[in-house]
């Protein structure tokens, strides 16, 4: 059995990945406060001697922000990532860092890995700044890494202030839900698909020291997704040629061409089936 460290293990994605990888591996976590000290972090990492590290710990973006929010992102997203890159043992097989589609900002959609990022939010700025630091530090220390940028993840335990959390909470309470930006187009991926892909790519050396979008190009209008989940209306996938609107605001969509070449037909998108299962759970 391999040893895996998952930071941000109590978060939305980290919680699921911890459960998924605990089936066949030893999974460890580190308290958030340890990331504030390079010496403390190094001691923990040296103690665990993990084969893989999945870094999710960050301060996720919120719909409203101000300049003070950049301080929060620097402290809770940028610095922990830099500390990990500086102190990870050189024996680590690979570190998978989780970025965000917010990094691309108003670049041309669908976003490709070689696009020049132009973040529009403090969260996107912190993630992109982290990516630049990781690239330089990891290549200098000769530790393999993959910077993954997933689409908007659909899962069972979405937080109430996030889109899917609001929708599923609505199914339970039956209260009227006012969608924010209902006409926006987003790129969705299921939690199950995400976990399978991370499991698949962690040993793919061809992807080491690069950025990888995790997308099956499931582009959906937010209002349509909501109506599908709450009213059983047909889910209509938006085609690439119809990705119209302001990038980073009206449209946030990743290109999945590199992922498709990397995994081939090994993992198939399970959006419809996954949503049906989630809906059944919330109807009980």
Question: What this model shows, in words?
Answer:
It is a single chain. The chain has 284 residues and is of the alpha/beta class. The protein has a single domain (2-156, 189-217, 254-270), classed as NAD(P)-binding Rossmann-like Domain (Rossmann fold), CATH 3.40.50. It is 40% helix and 16% strand. The chain has 9 helices and 10 strands. Helix 2 (38-48) crosses helix 3 (68-87) and helix 3 (68-87) runs parallel beside helix 4 (122-141). The radius of gyration is 19 Å and the shape is globular. The two termini are 37 Å apart. The model has no long low-confidence stretch (mean pLDDT 90).
In short:
This protein has helices spanning 12-21, 38-48, 68-87, 122-141, 163-173, 191-201, 222-231, 257-263, 271-283, and strands at 2-7, 25-28, 52-55, 94-98, 145-150, 152-154, 185-190, 210-214, 218-221, 251-252. The protein is of the alpha/beta class and 284 residues long.
- What pattern of helices and strands is seen along the backbone? EHEHEHEHEEHEHEEHEHH
CATH superfamily: NAD(P)-binding Rossmann-like Domain
Average pLDDT for all residues: 90
Low-pLDDT sequence parts: none
| Strand residue content | 15-25%
Backbone shape = globular
Query: Number of DSSP strands?
Result: 10
- CATH topology, what is it called? Rossmann fold
| Quaternary form | single chain
Helix content: 25-40%
Q: Could you say which structural class the secondary elements and strand pairing correspond to?
A: alpha/beta
What's the story with the biggest beta sheet?
A: 6 strands, parallel
Spatial strand arrangement across the major sheet: 2-1-3-4-5-8
**What is the CATH class designation?**
Alpha Beta
